[in-house]
Amino acid sequence: MVDIYGAPASDVEKPAERKLYAGFWIRLLATFIDYLWLLPLTWALGYFYYGSGYFNTDSLALGAVDIFLQHVLPAILVLGFWKYKAATPGKMAVKMRIADARTFEPASPKQLIIRYLGYIPAMLILMLGIIWIAFDDRKQGWHDKMANTVVLYR
Questions:
Q1: What is the mean pLDDT of residues 113-121?
Q2: What gap in Å lies between CA 112 and CA 122, rounded to an integer?
Q3: Backbone phi, then psi, for 69, in 5-degree steps?
Q4: Which 3-state string (H, E, C) describes 78-141?
Q5: Stronger pLDDT, 58 or 111, i.e. the higher one
Q6: How many CA atoms lie within 13 A of 118 on its CB side?
Q7: Backbone angles phi, psi at 57, to 5 degrees
Q8: Exposed, middle or buried, 26 (CB in 10 Å: 0-12/13-18/19+)?
Q9: Residue 152, strand partner residues
Q10: Distance (Å, rounded) from C-alpha 41 to C-alpha 45?
Q11: What are phi and psi of 28, to 5 degrees?
Q12: Of 58, 150, 62, nearest to 111 (Cα)?
């Protein structure tokens, strides 16, 4: 006999499942922690290569080395952490990991690259793709949706 007065099974499972997903504020804290190690690293390398003029310029980029330090090196480091640790140091500090949205297993390299590149459109329009995390049931930003990933508590 079917219990027509009981809650559907999917509604019963949602509260427990929701606790798996890391929300907006904890992810923002993890991003802040990542900036605490990444910015000093790139600034120190920029200072080492360009000298004190590195900080006293109106130019967006001082040359190929500066483009490497500002864009390529952070991408390599972040993608490397995602691939080998499933998290950046900031996410590790707050006990989170990136996973495939269907299986909760580690995300594939292809998913991680799509996720990284997905930050561009997620941030272009008033950061709406990032703010989306606060309102999404699975706490996915646009970059997560593009890559089919989720951020979970460990």
A1: 97
A2: 15
A3: -65, -35
A4: HHHHHHHHCCCHHHHHCCEEEEECCCCCECCHHHHHHHHHHHHHHHHCCCHHHHHHHCCCCCCC
A5: 111
A6: 20
A7: -140, 150
A8: middle
A9: 21, 97
A10: 6
A11: -65, -40
A12: 150
- The rounded distance, in Å, linking the Cα atoms of 55 and 70 is 13
What region does 43 belong to: left with phi over 0, alpha with psi -120 to 50, or beta?
alpha
Would you call 42 exposed, middle or buried from its count of C-beta atoms within 10 A (0-12, 13-18, 19+)? middle
11: its two tokens: 């509604």
**Which amino acid appears at position 113 of this protein?**
I
Closest CA to 119 of 106, 111, 129, 134: 129
Q: What is the average pLDDT score of the chain?
A: 89
Residue in the block written with tokens 């009981």? 6
Strand-pairing partners, residue 106, are 99
Tokens matching residue 20:
């798996």
Contact 146, 115 (CB under 8 A): yes
Phi then psi for 32, rounded to 5 degrees? -60, -45
Predicted TM-score (pTM) of this structure: 0.83
Cβ pair 31, 141 in contact under 8 A: no
